[in-house]
């Protein structure tokens, strides 16, 4: 049988973890998490890490295996995930991958665009500019350096702006000139499963999840992380807003409302990313397992 990767994707709070566990149990296999914020040990509640029962039901990989102080890029994840898949496919014909981080999913499925190594001082200077002058300076510099990429980048995401700028500055070439080069084919087949639901339902589930996180102690989880708030891992919805509350700039109620709002925006960006992929098999978020398996068999 051709080795098969089942990739479960969709907006946050739609039920990806439950579907991935159901599939892994059916196929007697293991799960790779491609959620880039669930990698970190210090960020459990705010990233909706699977609970202990879920983790015991099926073996998960790339869950809380890093510290927030570690440098761990999407390229590192691509390398580690492919090495693990090579091992898992010796024991299983099917492996399940789940996560809402579109770039990390694509890194495993398609491969990343390759970039030369850049002097880390360039990124450090860009981070300083961002801290001192805000996101506007990054947007202006990228528009001047690479107008082609500037047209399609998420201009509200400082990390994407900084990444593109450091390539422009470090190579003297536009970031876009390194994109869409031929990539090495993967030695396995992938079926992408995209979970969908009515937008209002997704928003309701997001609101419920945020309330649950607060009840479970998210504020207490964030408190000891405040001194590290500038770390890349902590530039995450749920943490950024509570830092402002702990600094006395916002009330708790307002911070919670901002978490909900920003999570809804994040879910919208996730769907925009997924909509770019024409090969996704879209299924209802509450599809019965038997019906889902029938669709997968048809794809195979």
Structure notes:
This protein has 13 helices and six strands. With 300 residues, it is of the alpha/beta class. The protein has two domains: 4-112 and 183-299, Rossmann fold (3-Layer(aba) Sandwich); 120-178, Histone, subunit A (Orthogonal Bundle), CATH 1.10.20. It catalyses: adenosine(37) in tRNA + dimethylallyl diphosphate = N(6)-dimethylallyladenosine(37) in tRNA + diphosphate.
Essential attributes:
300 residues; 13 helices; alpha/beta; Histone, subunit A
Unreliable spans are none
Number of domains: 2
CATH class of the largest domain: Alpha Beta
Total strands: 6
Global geometry: globular
The helix/strand class is alpha/beta
The mean pLDDT is: 95
Label the CATH architecture of the largest domain.
3-Layer(aba) Sandwich
The N- to C-terminal Cα distance equals 10 Å
Question: Helical residue percent?
Answer: 40-55%
Largest beta sheet, briefly?
6 strands, parallel
Number of helices: 13
**H/E order of the elements?**
EHEHEHEHHHHHEHHHHEH
CATH topology type of the largest domain: Rossmann fold
Biggest β-sheet: strands ordered side by side in the sheet:
3-2-4-1-5-6
Share of residues in strands? 5-15%
What value does the Rg take, in angstroms?
20 Å
CATH superfamily of the largest domain: P-loop containing nucleotide triphosphate hydrolases
Please write out the topology.
Blueprint: E1 4-9, H1 16-27, E2 31-33, H2 52-57, E3 60-61, H3 74-91, E4 94-98, H4 102-109, H5 120-133, H6 135-145, H7 147-150, H8 158-171, E5 189-196, H9 199-216, H10 218-222, H11 240-246, H12 252-275, E6 280-284, H13 289-299
Parallel strand pairs: 1-4, 1-5, 2-3, 2-4, 5-6
Helix pairs in contact: 3-4, 5-6, 5-8, 6-8, 9-12, 11-12
